[in-house]
């Protein structure tokens, strides 16, 4: 590729990076079009340019130097400033555009309206009837009110059926009475609930005539719309600092005999009539729709977090020189070491694979939503299984990749100047929120066991589990040589996933036959079942990557994606042993592969990952701006350590 086609080349950059960019075999803009989709890639460039022109939207100082209060204030200031410009910059109905704008301006550490857009609005869209939408959704979209999604409690997050918050219907007054009867029933964790929101969708166990009807969603006003003071019968606050996400005020909530009108229960699906008659929803789990929405969006979000970490470490690895391969020559860029390439490149391949899987899960969510609007509930189970598996596998592997990227930066990777600590903290939170990963794997496990049962009954499952019926096509890993083509890799992958799923199903059957209860038998098999779920999901990611690459028209881009696909399939299949060959092919394109993610310096917030590669001078600037450097001698030092040392000295002279 002639160098002028590489959009990332700029005058004045560190020559080490320019040298890398000149080696690119493809146009980074064209690969960005594949990674994001051409519309979003173009919009991200336009959004970045628009932000450049509005200084109030820029960071006032690096986030790691801020206290928690300053972070919360900075996020609030930017949200307010953005509210004046946002409709000029993005199409608000486009989630991914809006998310890109938020990440570029506010960053990944949280903001006062995260949950408002991620869950409050989607819950209203999915669960409120038309009249309720007119009352709350329009106001929420206009941001007249800010809401959150309050489900998790101090004592229960995973097991929703055991939520202790109650909503008891009072027929006389046509009201629900909401209560947090115990300490463990306090709502705990909801994002932005502590200080920012004035409304919440509270998930509570519905009780009518002493009958427990399971978790349902209720609209609760938390704070006065004018004074923002807490409403009566409500106690609310922030839960304190967390491993990451410290710009967000995750909160607690206690409800004490709070009365709300009957129509504050979201009634698109389940309904409670004035006389207390209860009408069941058409599908029992429609009340969980906001969670499925977020899970389907988390995959692209985690691909992006992994991309942040890898572009920082790949660029830095081409700046950092340390040691020799040939002692007669200069010190080499650390990227030249095979171990460094093996540490980073499989994760670069995964970032692409995850982004493609995420685009697919969002597409599937939209298809399910439209089909549900037409009254069809058939796609719900498939989507739940797919998103449960993807959410769990991608958040976990992205976390591993981010940590490898941090280690690849050596000591400087541990400084917050690299921003790796925050990226990791935010990434691994995804293993927990929206359903703890090992629990979500079990949800997919249930679906796989059902598919095995139908195969055993002679039926042919369709869609993502169709391969479970192809037991005749047995191939072993030993048959799978890297250059035989990708179809062979996929068949080997299918074989391994199928074998594990059948093994888990047989084991479950054995325990059930031995007289154990269904639940006990299930618990005895969950390790095997989760392995099956993991393999099934990794197979989906690999197949999707494979099919996606076949669609690419630009030959240079297709070739580099095929290199990544080859590496991905080999890495996933035979672990590390066979991919030294691929690493050699990826090496010349390493920087351009990460440049294609088009992450701006503003978005990165990393000194190590700077696009221009001027790392060391900026590390020094960063160190000088530390609060601790504002005084030559810290007041705390004068107060404690200096007297201690002076005293010790005095003692020794005696
Ligand atoms: C605009 C931007 C959009 C998105 C943002 C993008 C990215 C995110 C960015 C930032 C995020 C920032 C902050 C994060 C905020 C976090 C919020 C939260 O965490 S909210 C709380 C989330 N809580 C959970 O996820 C709880 C997990 N627990 C459960 O989901 C359930 O309890 C569990 C599924 C584990 C069990 O439920 P239960 O009712 O007991 O069912 P059971 O296991 O018995 O299964 C019965 C039957 O139901 C099926 N099923 C279960 N769930 C669903 C579902 N959701 N949909 C469809 N079907 C479901 C289950 O498979 C089973 O079916 P079968 O009987 O086997 O057929
Ligand atoms: C950053 C962040 C933001 C959040 N935001 C929100 C929010 O906005 N709104 C909200 O309502 N909640 C929110 N949460 C809460 C989150 O959804 C829950 O923490 C999550 O669903 C996990 O539930 P838990 O904490 O009860 O974990 P637990 O269920 O207590 O998990 C502990 C361990 O038990 C295991 N375990 C539990 N059940 C089973 C089982 N059945 N089988 C096998 N193993 C099991 C788990 O695998 C895990 O290892 C947030 C959490 C975080 C970290």
TrEMBL record:
The residues responsible for catalysis, as annotated, are 434
What Pfam families does the entry give? ACOX, ACOX_C_alpha1, Acyl-CoA_ox_N
Indicate whether Flavoprotein appears among the record's keywords: yes
Pathway in which the depicted protein is active:
Lipid metabolism; peroxisomal fatty acid beta-oxidation
Q: Does the keyword Kinase apply?
A: no
Q: Name one GO cellular component term.
A: peroxisome
Question: According to its UniProt record, where is this protein mainly located?
Answer: other
- Composition-biased stretches (Basic and acidic residues): 10-21
User: According to its UniProt record, where is this protein located?
Assistant: Peroxisome
* Domain Acyl-coenzyme A oxidase N-terminal intervals: 38-146
The protein's name in its UniProt record: Acyl-coenzyme A oxidase
> What organism does the record attribute this protein to?
Caenorhabditis auriculariae
């Amino acid at each position: 590729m002639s160098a002028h086609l590489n959009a990332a080349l700029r005058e004045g950059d560190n020559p080490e990076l320019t040298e890398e960019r000149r080696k690119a075999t493809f146009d980074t803009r064209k690969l960005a079009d594949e990674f994001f989709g051409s519309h979003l890639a173009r919009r991200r460039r336009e959004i970045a340019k628009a932000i450049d022109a509005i200084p109030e939207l820029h960071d006032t100082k690096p986030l790691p130097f801020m206290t928690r209060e300053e972070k919360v204030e900075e996020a609030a200031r930017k949200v307010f400033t953005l509210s004046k410009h946002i409709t000029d910059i993005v199409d608000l109905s486009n989630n991914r555009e809006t998310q890109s704008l938020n990440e570029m301006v506010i960053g990944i550490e949280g903001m006062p309206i995260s949950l408002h857009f991620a869950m409050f609005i989607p819950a209203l869209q999915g669960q409120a009837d038309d009249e309720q939408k007119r009352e709350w959704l329009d106001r929420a979209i206009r941001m007249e009110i800010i809401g959150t999604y309050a489900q998790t409690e101090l004592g229960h997050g995973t097991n929703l059926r055991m939520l202790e918050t109650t909503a008891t219907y009072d027929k006389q007054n046509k009201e629900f009475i909401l209560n947090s009867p115990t300490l463990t029933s306090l709502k705990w964790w909801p994002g932005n609930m502590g200080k920012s929101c004035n409304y919440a969708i509270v998930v509570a166990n519905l009780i009518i005539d002493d009958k427990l009807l399971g978790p349902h969603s209720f609209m609760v006003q938390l704070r006065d719309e004018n004074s923002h003071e807490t409403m009566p019968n409500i106690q609310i606050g922030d839960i304190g600092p967390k491993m990451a996400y410290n710009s967000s005020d995750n909160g607690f909530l206690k409800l004490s005999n709070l009365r709300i009108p009957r129509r504050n229960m979201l009634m698109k699906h389940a309904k409670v009539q004035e006389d207390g008659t209860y009408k069941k929803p058409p599908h029992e789990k429609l009340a969980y729709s906001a969670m499925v929405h977020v899970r389907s969006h988390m995959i692209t979000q985690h691909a992006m977090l992994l991309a942040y970490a890898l572009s920082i470490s790949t660029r830095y690895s081409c700046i950092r020189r340390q040691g020799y391969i040939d002692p007669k020559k200069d010190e080499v860029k650390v990227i030249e070491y095979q171990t460094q390439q093996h540490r980073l490149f499989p994760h670069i391949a995964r970032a692409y694979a995850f982004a493609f899987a995420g685009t697919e899960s969002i597409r599937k969510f939209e298809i399910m939503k439209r089909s549900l609007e037409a009254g069809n509930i058939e796609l719900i189970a498939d989507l739940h299984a797919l998103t449960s598996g993807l959410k769990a596998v991608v958040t976990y592997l992205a976390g591993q990749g981010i940590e490898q990227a941090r280690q690849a930066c050596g000591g400087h990777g541990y400084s917050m100047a690299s921003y790796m600590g925050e990226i990791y903290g935010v990434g691994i939170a995804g293993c927990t929120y929206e359903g703890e990963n090992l629990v979500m794997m079990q949800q997919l496990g249930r679906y796989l066991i059902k598919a095995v049962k139908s195969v055993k009954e002679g039926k042919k499952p369709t869609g993502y589990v169709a391969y479970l019926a192809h037991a005749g096509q047995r191939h072993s890993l030993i048959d799978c040589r890297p250059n035989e083509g990708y179809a062979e890799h996929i068949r080997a992958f299918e074989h391994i996933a199928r074998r594990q799923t059948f093994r888990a199903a047989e084991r479950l059957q054995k325990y059930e036959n031995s007289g154990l209860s269904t639940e006990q038998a299930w618990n005895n098999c969950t390790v095997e079942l989760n392995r099956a779920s993991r393999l099934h999901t990794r197979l989906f990611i690999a197949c999707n990557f494979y099919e996606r690459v076949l669609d690419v028209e630009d030959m240079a881009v297709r070739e580099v994606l095929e290199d990544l696909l080859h590496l991905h399939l080999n890495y996933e299949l035979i672990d590390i042993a066979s991919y030294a060959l691929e690493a050699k092919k990826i090496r010349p394109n390493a920087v351009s592969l990460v440049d294609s993610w088009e992450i701006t310096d503003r978005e990165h917030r990393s000194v190590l990952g700077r696009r221009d590669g001027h790392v060391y001078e900026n590390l020094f600037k960063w160190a000088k701006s530390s609060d601790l450097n504002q005084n030559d001698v810290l007041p705390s030092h004068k107060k404690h350590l200096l007297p201690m040392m002076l005293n010790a000295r005095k003692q020794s002279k005696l």
